[in-house]
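Exercise: predict the structure of this protein bound to adenosine-5'-diphosphate.
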Amino acid sequence: MQAMMMHRNMKVADILTFAAEIHPTGEIVSRRTEGDLHRTTYADTAKRVAQLAHGLVALGMTPGDRIATLAWNGYRHFELYYAISGAGGVCHTINPRLSQEQMLYIVGHADDKVLFVDLTFVPMIEALADQLPPDLRFVLMTDKAHMPDSAVAFLCYEDLLDGHPTQFEWPDIDENDAAGLCYTSGTTGNPKGTLFSHRSMVLHAMSVAIALPKALNQSSRILPVVPLFHVNAWGLPYAAPLTGASLIFPGPALDGESLFNLMDAEKVYSAWGVPTVWLGLLGQIEAEGRIPDGLGDVVIGGSAAPRSMIEAFEAKGINVCHAWGMTEMSPVGTQGNLTPHLEDLPLEDRLNIKSKQGRRIFGVDLKIVDEAGVALPHDGQTSGELYVRGNTIASGYFNNPDATADALDSDGWFGTGDMATIDGDGYLTITDRAKDLIKSGGEWISSLDLENAAMAHPCVANCAVIAVPHAKWDERPLLVVVPADGQQVDKAELLALLGKQFAKWQVPDDVVFTDALPLTATGKISKLTLRAIYADHVLPDA
Ligand code: ADP
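Solution:
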């Protein structure tokens, strides 16, 4: 029997319209590429978004057109998210840290009509201009006063808005139409595009808001270090206005000192980002001898948060929420905030739970399977490949039939490429990315577990464990360590520490030291690069 309820399309434009009416004074504070701090509200932003939508239509944007952005976290980038999708276009965010080849591939593959660019990236566009499609238009995200002399015919963002009405008749878009496009980093092969719908974006925003009420509410001030240019800044541009939380955008300054000062001045309560960013902030907290005023919550995801990092924040009274997800999941899949009855546990127990990747948010189903695709028990012990299903999860890749054919299993679940266990309380533990596991003599060794243990050594600032080819065992683990400032780390001492926690065959065969670890375009440690660097490393017993 059909129900008798209205059907209204879910549209991203409705989120900002709602915020402007119900949370009009919610703030957006941005450190601009021009150098100063800019403040606005959801109410005023909605007016500028309407003007921008008129500007886009005047530029010739038609429904379904891909409009690209190459920009930091700031209010203009936020405006583009809403104006492009709201007026029927597809907001295609491009990661400026990608290689030139990848960027050219992505712009061509997406068939972008317009590219919006922050001032920082003018030299990059000038260098690439000859190789970009000849009919691509460029808009520089600044005002007239800051327009540079350039050989590229940049339009001016503020001119695009100028003189247009502050109201826009948002079209009634089919909720299954595309609203956003984001390419995976493509560490192997070409990047693949995840095409988000209006419906998936709205549902994702609601699920994230429900799952993280501490961070997402009217009185909260949130700083997304996680970029608008990748993975939709973990959904914050939608979830924050939905709940009325204020957004503090850090612009291009993502070092520990700049983040500390902005958080301190703006009384940021909750900050979201990948582990590498928090190493910088923790260093600055150490140097200042205090935490930024008002900071009470840190969301860490994108790669595994080391236990020692969680402990460092928690010891300072800052709640850590360890989250997991991926681009193809809009991106949030799980969150690790403790339920009230677990919050009273002793610190050690809380740290053990918080080191896991948390529990699924509403709308995301999880299963782990063996190599034959048979579902495995959720007993916290059995590890299998993680599959996901839900309304916020990709069913394939944009204009890529081959990758689409491989994306889902025969029951329609999406393969994450992660290995995981799930325990009886629903806590997910990512044991490794399948491709980062080390296969030694037919047994698997988790690089993540070893890294977690090594990070607990006070002289280790950062580290990674990778597989090195081995004649007898196929692969053996190698530990690559960045020593903490001015510290000497003793190889034998480090291996002895690991020897206490791991079976003999799991302990790395060798330790090498380096000044810095290579990072991917999304700020994660690039194990692909590390494996190439150390491919010929001769292990002591080899
Ligand atoms: P990329 O950075 O490669 O473009 P994503 O940002 O979508 O892609 O990364 C998704 C992957 O990041 C996941 O499949 C998983 O391997 C890893 N990841 C994300 N969060 C966590 C976490 N909390 N712990 C461990 N791994 C994580």
